Amino acid sequence: MRINENYGNLKENYLFSDIARKVNEYKASHPDADVIRLGIGDVTLPLCKSVVDAMVKATLEMGKKETFRGYGDEQGYSFLQEAIADYYKKRGVALDISEIFISDGAKSDLGNMLDLFSTDNTALIPDPVYPVYVDTNILAGRKIAFLNANEENGFLPLPDENTKGDIVYICSPNNPTGAVYDREGLKKWVDWANACGAVILFDAAYEAFISDDSLPHSIYEIEGARTCAVEVCSLSKTAGFTGTRCGYTVVPEALIRGGKPLRKMWLRRQTTKFNGVPYIVQRGAEAVFTDAGQREIKENIAYYKENARIIADALGRAGIAFSGGVHSPYIWLKCPGGMTSWEYFDLLLNKANVVGTPGAGFGKNGEGYLRLTAFGDRGRIKEAVERIIKLK
Fold first, then answer.
1. What is the 3-state secondary structure (H, E, C) of the chain?
2. 205-214 pLDDT per residue, tens
3. C-alpha distances in angstroms, 231 versus 100, 200, 203?
4. For the segment 258-303, what is each residue's pLDDT rounded down to a tens digit?
C-alpha cells in the first residue's frame, strides 16, 4: 500500500504549534515570567446569556423522552438555517435554506470543500494567508499559485489579465492583515471568476467586526456572486464559539461547474462524511441571531474592537507602522528596526514576555511583520502594549 506522500510536502509543524513550543520552553526556564499571549486568535469572553439559556433549555429537552433528539439532518436543523437566512435578508441577500449548510466551523468546511474539485485545478491563494488554505491544498496534491498581498496594494490583491487559477481564496476582513475589500474590489473578483469559470471560496469569519456598512459583509451583496462563490462563515469569533464549534457554509443553487450544481455535490459529500452539529449547539447558535443575541454579541465584539484601538493607539504613539484593527480583531505590525518576524517574536517573548504571531508563518510576504490579537482581557492588553512600546 501507499500512503499520502503529500504529507511530506507540509512544513514540519503547524505555525501555532511552533509558537506553543517556544513559549512552553521559555516558561519552563523562566517559571516566574508573566507571559501575556496576543498570538493565537482565541476569544476570552464567555458565551452570551441568550446562547447559554438556549443551550440549557436544549440540554433539558434531551433528557426527556418526548423532546429527545437523535440524528438530525446533516445539513442542519431548519430552525437555524431560517435564522441565518433572516440574518442575510437584513443585508439584502436572499438565500433559500437549502443553500445553507450548518457545520462545526469554517476551518473544517474550507478543507472539506476541496472534495468537490479535481486535484488538477490550481488554487489561487493570497500571501500572507491563513495557513489552512495552503496546507489543505498541499495535502490534496493540488498546484498552488500565490497572489501578492503587500503594502502597495493594501494587502488586497486584485485580478488582472495575467491572473490564472481555478479555486480562489478571499478572506475579508482578512486574517492576518485586517484588510477589508470594498464593493468595487469584490466586484472585480466576481467578474473575473465568472469570466474564467473559477470558484471563489469566500471566508467571512470576521464579517461581524465590520463597522462601516458601506463595506460588504457577504460576497453575495455583489452582483453575480451567486454563480461563482461559496461563502464560509463561523460563529467562533462572532459569538465566542471557538470551543462550542458551529459555523455555516452557503452554496448557491446557481453555482454550477462542469455541468453539475455544487450545492447538490456538497449535500452529497456532507451526507456521506458528516453527521451534523449537535442539536444543543444549534439551538445556541440560533439564539445568536435573535434580537437579544445580536445585542449581546455586539457588546462582546465592541469590547474586542476597543482592545484593538488601544493596541493601535499605542503603536501609533511609538511610531510602529501597522494595519488592521479597525474592522478586524487583528493588528498587523511592521517589525521595527528591520527585524525578521521570528527575531521580533523572540525579542517580545524574552524581553517583554509578550507573545505575538510571526508574520513569516503566514507566507513569504509576511516576513518582517507580526500579528497581534485583540482577543484578551482589557487590563492585560494595556499591560502588553506598554511593554511593547518600551522596547521601541
1. CCCCHHHHHCCCCCHHHHHHHHHHHHHHHCCCCCCEECCCCCCCCCCCHHHHHHHHHHHHHHCCCCCCCCCCCCCCCHHHHHHHHHHHHCCCCCCCHHHEEEECCHHHHHHHHHHHCCCCCEEEEEECCCHHHHHHHHHHCCEEEEEECCCCCCCCCCCCCCCCCCEEEEECCCCCCCCCCCHHHHHHHHHHHHHHCCEEEEECCCHHHCCCCCCCCCHHHCCCHHHCEEEEEECHHHHCCCCCCCEEEECCCCCEECCEEHHHHHHHHHHHHCCCCCHHHHHHHHHHCCHHHHHHHHHHHHHHHHHHHHHHHHHHHHCCCEEECCCCCEEEEECHHHCCHHHHHHHHHHHHCEECEEHHHHCHHHCCEEEEECCCCHHHHHHHHHHHHHCC
2. 999 999 998 9
3. 10, 8, 6
4. 999 999 999 999 999 999 999 999 999 999 999 999 999 999 999 9
pTM (two decimals): 0.96
In the CATH hierarchy, which fold is given to the domain comprising 5-47+293-390?
Answer: Aspartate Aminotransferase, domain 1 (3.90.1150)
Sort strands 122-127 and 167-171 into parallel, antiparallel or unpaired.
parallel
What dihedral angle (degrees, nearest 10) is formed by the CA atoms of 148, 152, 154, 158?
A: -50
Sketch the domain layout of the chain as residue ranges: 5-47+293-390, 49-290
Per-residue cell: 274? 458528516
CATH number of 49-290: 3.40.640.10
**How far apart (Å, rounded) are the C-alpha atoms in residues 179 and 332?**
9
- The tally of CA atoms less than 13 A away on the side-chain side of residue 289 is 19
pLDDT band at 392 (very low <50, low <70, confident <90, very high): low
